[in-house]
Amino acid sequence: MNDKQKRATIVDVATRAGVSIGTVSRIVNTQAGPEATRRRVLDAIADLEYVPNHVARSLKRRSTEQIALVVPDIANPVYVAMAKTIQREAKERGFRLSLMSANDDPGGEEFALDSLEQMRVDGLIICSLKPTRKLVERLERVRGRVCVVGSVPEEARVDNVRVDSAGGAQGAVQHLLDGGRRRIGFINGTPGTVPAGTRSLGYRRALEENGLHVDEALIVNGEFSMAGGYRSVDRLLAGHDELDAIFCANDVIAFGAMRRLRELGIGVPSQVALVGMDDIDLGKISTPTLSTVSLLAEERGRLAAELLLERLLGGAAEEPRKVTVTPRLIVRESSTDYIRHEVPA
Amino acid sequence: MNDKQKRATIVDVATRAGVSIGTVSRIVNTQAGPEATRRRVLDAIADLEYVPNHVARSLKRRSTEQIALVVPDIANPVYVAMAKTIQREAKERGFRLSLMSANDDPGGEEFALDSLEQMRVDGLIICSLKPTRKLVERLERVRGRVCVVGSVPEEARVDNVRVDSAGGAQGAVQHLLDGGRRRIGFINGTPGTVPAGTRSLGYRRALEENGLHVDEALIVNGEFSMAGGYRSVDRLLAGHDELDAIFCANDVIAFGAMRRLRELGIGVPSQVALVGMDDIDLGKISTPTLSTVSLLAEERGRLAAELLLERLLGGAAEEPRKVTVTPRLIVRESSTDYIRHEVPA
DNA sequence: TTGTATGCGTTATCAT
DNA sequence: ATGATAACGCATACAA
Questions:
Q1: 0.90 surpassed by pTM
Q2: Min CA distance, B208 vs chain A (Å)?
Q3: Do A127 and A78 belong to one domain?
Q4: Residue numbers of the domain that contains A316
Q5: What are the residues whose beta carbons fall under 8 Å from the beta carbon of A204, sequence distance 6 or more?
Q6: Are the beta carbons of A54 and B118 separated by less than 8 Å?
Q7: Pairing status of strand A219-221 against strand A273-275
Q8: Residues A195 and A91 in one domain
Q9: Which residue of A59, A263, A282 is in closest CB contact with B56?
Q10: Is residue B57 part of a domain?
Q11: Whether residue A128 is found in the same domain as residue A274
């Protein structure tokens, strides 16, 4: 009944140990102090089960030693990989990471920014699919406490780690062309998002640079999910059974597509080659294994953590810093069968 | 250069609006107040871009309105599903959820409990694979602010939502037996964990209740991961090519196993039937689709959120509450081919 | 309705 | 080395 015992505060400890709160505080926060009093204080702390109130401490110190990572959808393993890296990186520097999923809700990012402004966290690493003008303005306002992973306008004054995903997409399609594929479909993610834009750009560039016509009928817009990939296959195939490859805007889409293709009895890669983007672990064990473009999620996570934490720790110049990584094509089974076509006149 | 402007506090707003901080506070926290002053205060807030400092507010209110969910490994989609449910549930009641992954590190749970004791969060929902005596003691000490999802000793005085996973496992194996399978292998997860124990129990019970001998050679212990499932297949098959089914301790293991079986040219389910546990989404689109036992992750998440939040909101009796859900067998392609054996003498 | 003043539990400054 | 005390920014009980 009476276990609603109040938690001990620093003054309880001080009283118990017969010293001042100043002394207790010093001993709690530094190793300093003469062995004699140290002993007494530590005993008192143990007896009373004293744990410093982090809220009060944060208020006084003006820092919570806590950061958050905001991802569009935690169901996508690529963000999980990124989160794990960042968590490790943060922990090493004495920060805690909490993970927030925007669940594809644009309000999710704003919600996280509220957290920052309310001082719930010291900093934010934010992956946004669709950085609206309004969002970017808010981000700039709190620059110095935030790092954006992904594309934000070039001139935005925020720390930013990006990847040349247009180049990555182009490389993927080029790889399909190199393999002899000529009718290459494209299943894109959620229209209006930055990643959808860059991938589309890469797809078109690859075709154009090879003197090929971009057939809009071979492009379908879906969403960044397995269901999206699954459904898009039917739309893509309607009247296009000459298709010999599909480039998917990310791996999750690719797995949805792969599933649907198999249901339809279409061989991958024998009939249709498949390439995704992100390089999630599943691609290494699926059947067939999935060719993809690594966007270096862990690497970007690590870089973002470094940028943010350096700034929080005070060791960063005023100017926003931008760093860009280069994607890497990873060829696996889903795209390896070579197909020889007639060389176009 | 001079954008390091200090954030406005409530007294700045009060000064600007020409009212007392009491008035400002009231207007910020309630809708009350006469239109006249309300207007002035709201304007001042807008002008100064005032956002209440949540740390100070928490200190005063003695509550952060923040909870956390601790999962063993965020790479397992079943926890993602649970997290999403809890996040929704929490938001509805004005709480924020932050997700922490213990990354299979037993220290991860302790770390989260530290957070609770430091008052970083008001409450904790914790999924532990291996609740040590020490951990349970800590959990009991902070009961009233914590809810455990998963098995903790029956007599532990903590809110607890559990699932009869032994029964679920037994049902899965019974299903394989009903399908005519007789040599059923078992790929278990990390030895020493509670889930590994209950699944093993269910597996054995099913065989025994059918008067079948439990062949220890058909049981391998791995870990709760795809890699674990993948590797275990070889160990299981060594000298046991008469195997006609495998029960996997969870879906992630099952997918690893499925991959390896296909590499070996072993048909699923034609030669070896496969059943997992958890019912992650991937099982609906894999080839073949995966038979599994739903452990009702979302449902358990919802219940846990309810138990915890009710307690935090003050509307809960003193006694710890235990709720148990019943798993549900979901038959899909990976176990459906019927095999007729000779009826044993 | 509005203003004042105290406390939430720390840390940090300044004497001692 | 140690002790007293003033913030940190907000909420609230109480007074006006």
A1: yes
A2: 35
A3: yes
A4: 62-164+297-327
A5: A214
A6: yes
A7: unpaired
A8: no
A9: A59
A10: no
A11: no
Instruction: Please state at what angle helix A165-178 crosses helix A194-209, rounded to 10 degrees.
Output: 40
Q: Can you read off the two tokens belonging to residue B251? A: 């879906």
In a shared domain, residues B169 and B270: yes
In a domain, B68, yes or no: yes
Which residue, chain included where needed, has tokens 């992630």?
B252
Q: Is residue A57 part of a domain?
A: no
The answer on A193 and A142 residing in a single domain is: no
Judged by CB atoms closer than 8 Å, whether chains meet at B99 and A96 is answered as no
User: At residue B115, what is the residue type?
Assistant: S
Contacts for A250 with CB less than 8 Å, ≥ 6 apart: A76, A78, A189, A195, A224, A276, A277, A278
Which stretches of chain B sit within 8 Å of chain A by CB? 1, 51-56, 58-59, 64, 66, 68, 74-75, 77, 80, 83-84, 87, 96, 98-101, 103, 114-115, 117-120, 226, 230, 255-256, 259, 262-263, 281-282, 285-287, 318
Q: Is the CB of B267 under 7 A from strand D?
A: no
Mean pLDDT by 10 residues, chain B (345 residues): 69 96 95 86 96 98 96 95 96 95 85 96 96 94 95 94 98 97 96 97 98 95 94 90 94 95 92 97 90 98 97 86 97 82 45
Answer yes or no: do B146 and B274 share one domain: no
Based on the structure, what is the number of domains in chain B? 3
Distance CA B225, CA A264 (A): 30
Element (H, E) at A161: strand A159-163
| Radius of gyration, CA atoms only, chain B | 26
In-domain check, residue A238: yes
**Claim to verify: residue A316 and residue A213 sit in the same structural domain:** no
A254 and A172 assigned to the same domain: yes
Distance CA B327, CA A89 (A): 38
